[in-house]
Amino acid sequence: MAFSNKNFPTLKNDRLIRAALGKEVDKVPVWVMRQAGRYLPEFQAVRAQHDFFTVCQTPELACEVTLQPLRRYEHLDASIIFSDILVIPQALGMTVEMHPGLGPVFPKPLQDPSELDELKENGAISRLDYVGKAITLTRHRLEGKVPLIGFTGAPFTLMGYMVEGGGSKTMSKTKEWLEKYPKDVHRLLSLLTKVIIDYLVMQVESGAQLLQVFESSADHLTREQFIEVSSPYLKDIRNGVQKKLEEKKLEQVPMTIFAKGGGHSLDVQAKLGYETIGLDWTVDPIEARKIVGTNITLQGNLDPQDLYKTPEEIRRLTIDMVKKFGKHRYIANLGHGITPQTPLESMTAFTEAVHEAI
């Protein structure tokens, strides 16, 4: 049995895992992207004393902020380890700083393909061992209350940050790379894919019970580009994780792909082997179900901005959403991360309404 060497507490609430595997559930499971985050005053208190990446890199702190939303919201059916997708570029030797009001900044982004040779692939996973330690600690501290999700950024999304030097509304430098240096783009995406596979397997070895891959920049890709620079690598990640878990005699864990803005490619995503497809708020649940069929779980997809409405309105919108998705093969979530100014009672209204809806 996987994890036996860790002696983890028995899982008491397995709704999330059951929904991901297509099994019957008593209630629709619910969790929220960025549920451990800036909308919580207790998270702000930790951040007032510690830099963002210090929290990520200190297992005790990462564990504490992971658990914060579960103490406040009894209806949450999952925890997600507090970390960041950009820990991978850091582990490859790039500097990433979190600037207030700006978000992540790379003081020295990749200027041209000659710099790919400077990326330090060897030892990258050992430089990420703090994530594994945080996962193991959190699994114990959760006491089996809910499952723990591990995650990673997808190769194209990570490449975008590494080339742009931070978040970008246009991705103009990345698009220039796609045009000018197609071979080097695939070389970089392949390198990232290898590291991501090992990183996710390490998370499972450490205690992660479900894995989510964030292709957060899919909205910058056409369907054709998605098929060229995103989906082949997403498929390699799914197959690679499965194969390595088999080799290590570890239990397989369900995996979710969330391609924000990837509504144009749901049929492609349905063929990648992931148990769950996350939908952003622009996708109609009924249409999505028609496209992906009945053997894949859907996750999502309330607009995060809806959480600024009254609790009554949130409840109505949430119940309406859950009914569209139905109870089978469905995990309720937002269509992207919860935003920093969200009122605390909105999360209560949202999570309660999910459990009451069907």
Automatic annotation (TrEMBL):
SUBUNIT field: Homodimer.
Q: What does this protein do?
A: Catalyzes the decarboxylation of four acetate groups of uroporphyrinogen-III to yield coproporphyrinogen-III.
Query: Carries keyword Glycoprotein?
Result: no
Task: Name the source's superkingdom.
Answer: Eukaryota
Instruction: Provide GO CC annotations from the record.
Output: cytosol
What's a GO biological-process term for it? Answer: heme biosynthetic process
Could you tell me which InterPro entries the record lists for this protein?
Uroporphyrinogen_deCO2ase_HemE, Uroporphyrinogen_deCOase
Q: Which HAMAP family match?
A: URO_D
The entry sums up its family as follows:
Belongs to the uroporphyrinogen decarboxylase family.
Q: Which keywords are on file for this protein?
A: Cytoplasm, Decarboxylase, Heme biosynthesis, Lyase, Porphyrin biosynthesis
Spell out the Pfam families in the cross-references. URO-D
Q: What is this protein called?
A: Uroporphyrinogen decarboxylase
Q: What is its EC number?
A: 4.1.1.37
Associated pathway: Porphyrin-containing compound metabolism; protoporphyrin-IX biosynthesis; coproporphyrinogen-III from 5-aminolevulinate: step 4/4
Which source organism does the UniProt entry give? Parnassius apollo
Q: Which reaction does it catalyse?
A: uroporphyrinogen III + 4 H(+) = coproporphyrinogen III + 4 CO2
Uroporphyrinogen decarboxylase (URO-D) domain location, by residue? 29-38, 149-165
GO molecular function terms attached to this record: uroporphyrinogen decarboxylase activity
Q: Where in the cell is it found?
A: Cytoplasm, Cytosol
